[in-house]
Amino acid sequence: MFLRLTEAASGCKYFLMATKAPQFTDRKPRADAQRNRERILELARQEFARSGVNASLEEIAKQAGVGPGTLYRHFPTRDALIEAVYRTEVEKLAAAERRFAEAMPPIEALRAWMLLFIDHIAAKQIIVPALNALAGGPSKLYEGSRGQIQGAIHALVRRAIKSGDMRKDLDPMDLLRALIGVASVAISPDWQQSAKRVVDILITGSRPVK
Predict the structure, then answer these.
(1) What are phi and psi for residue 53, nearest 5 degrees?
(2) Which of 67, 117, 148, 207 could anchor a disulfide with 94, C-beta 3.0 to 4.6 Å?
(3) CATH architecture for residues 2-74
């Protein structure tokens, strides 16, 4: 609790300092601001994975090569940063579906996306405790992401079925449920490697019977 209050106070301090800056102070171009934001999010994801959601925000800023004030301007609170990390992971999944579909054969695109989904689950497990502490819980956040994830795997499976690489009666949600099920019973640090092996088992089992 003390840590959260300290961070909030720090955020207010940097915000007040920023608002007192003269109007003629040089500002970074919008492109630079966007790069800073993306760098903070990536380093935050890595630091949360390494140290948990209570990782030092100042350390995240340092690793991202920005000052604490820059971090707080983009993300005024720890919760805001955690939510942004989660939303970014979901956006990456949605974008990956289109990218893989354009660059790979249907079955390989599906496999690549499922492997990426395993990484997404790992990131989600890291931040779930903090999301649960948010006012009202994380349900609205999850509801928004669910549609993007389901839409992505449905599109990939449709392509694989159309190409003849997968059975016509395959339900895309069965693949998601299987992967989530593996993650929900994770009992060792190497569960991700086990889950990725399950991806190949699912792909093999989904092929048409000859």
Answers:
(1) -70, -10
(2) 148
(3) Orthogonal Bundle (1.10)
Compute how many other C-beta atoms are within 10 angstroms of the C-beta atom of residue 204: 8
155-181 pLDDT, tens digit per residue, is 999 999 999 999 999 999 999 899 888
Q: Tokens 């003269």 appear where?
A: 22
Q: Does domain 78-205 have CATH number 1.10.357.10?
A: yes
Choose among 68, 60, 90, 56: nearest CA to 18. Answer: 68
CB 36 within 8 A of CB 70: yes
pTM score, whole prediction: 0.73
Burial of 77-105, coded b for 16+ CB within 10 Å and e otherwise, reads ebbebbbbbbebbbeebbebbeebbeebe
